[in-house]
Design a protein that fits this description.
This protein is of the alpha/beta class. It contains eleven helices and eight strands.
């Protein structure tokens, strides 16, 4: 019997998912290295690419999305930055784990452990959706190590998710077809199809379909006290047509509590704005990071 838990329903669908994941990685637009980093939870899968002499940017993907879904953002970022994309434990991806996270402290210990084993001292964090929670969490608990924080389309962190998501969860149980899942992806993408190759869309559908629902994600809405501890430069990007959360509530709370915050609302974008609007998101992220590191040098 394996010492690891599985984020997949069974071994058959795990093999299918990982095969599709590898197909998506063949579309990764720049040369990269893969590595498994040993942690107390188990081996964590990371992708490394970009300018090894540049500042480090750690990427944390959304729920059931995998690191492959950063592909539309990578080319521009790797021109100046060294990218570490990490597959989050207990989610459906290449990382293996012995148990789900039980606390924010465990999540922070895991992530800083991966970064330590890579020999990295200072770094910036960029997280999308579920990944933004892990990025925010470490920024609360490891102020001395994190240089800046980029939050894209946050889900549960500033506020709870909207009740309409539960409607879709029930609908996909009652109508367990790929067509229903495609409609869900269009719903979170501002009502339109994803602008990514078919293999990426297939991977997202498989992530919804093949995930072991018995493995629960770590859920946490940060308190004002926790958020006020984030003193580093923060960039918040959120779509004008975000559906997971109430955009006004997220923006209002973020601007009230996080002092060194720049917030930008992306027009005609939904929850998947990093994939759907790379031509808009990438320059904003680059400009923010360039400003951060110019300030550090000065």
């Amino acid at each position: 019997m394996s010492e690891y838990l599985s984020a997949y329903k069974n071994k058959t669908v795990e093999a299918l998912f990982l095969e599709k994941y590898d197909l998506c990685l063949k579309l990764w637009p720049v040369p990269y290295e893969e590595e498994y980093i040993e942690t107390e939870l188990g081996p964590t899968y990371v992708i490394k690419c970009g300018n090894k002499e540049g500042p480090v940017l750690v990427l944390l993907h959304g729920k059931a999305a995998t690191s492959a879904l950063w592909s539309p953002n990578i080319t521009e970022l790797t021109q100046k930055y060294y990218i570490i994309a990490i597959d989050i434990p207990s989610d459906i991806n290449k990382t293996r784990f012995k148990k789900p996270f039980e606390s924010t402290g465990e999540a922070a210990d895991w992530l800083i452990g991966v970064i330590d084993r890579l020999g990295i001292d200072k770094f910036s964090l960029m997280g999308c959706s579920y990944g933004s929670f892990f990025a925010m969490n470490l920024s609360v608990l490891e102020q001395k190590r994190v240089e800046s924080l980029i939050i894209i389309a946050p889900s549960i962190s500033f506020t709870n998710i909207r009740k309409q998501l539960w409607y879709w969860a029930i609908k996909m149980i009652l109508s367990p077809f790929d067509s229903t899942k495609m409609k869900f992806l269009e719903w979170i993408n501002a009502g339109k199809p994803l602008r990514v190759p078919k293999d990426f869309t297939d991977l997202l559908i498989m992530g919804i379909k093949y995930a072991n629902v018995k493995v629960k994600p770590l859920i946490h809405v940060f308190s004002d006290k926790e958020l006020s501890q984030i003193k580093i430069p923060v960039l918040l990007l959120i779509g004008q047509k975000e559906v997971m959360t109430e955009i006004d509530d997220v923006v209002a709370r973020a601007t009230r509590v996080i002092k060194n915050l720049k917030c930008q609302i992306i027009e005609d974008a939904g929850h998947t704005l990093a994939m759907d609007k790379p031509e808009v998101v990438n320059p904003i992220v680059q400009s923010f990071l360039n400003g951060v590191h110019a300030g550090i040098k000065s």
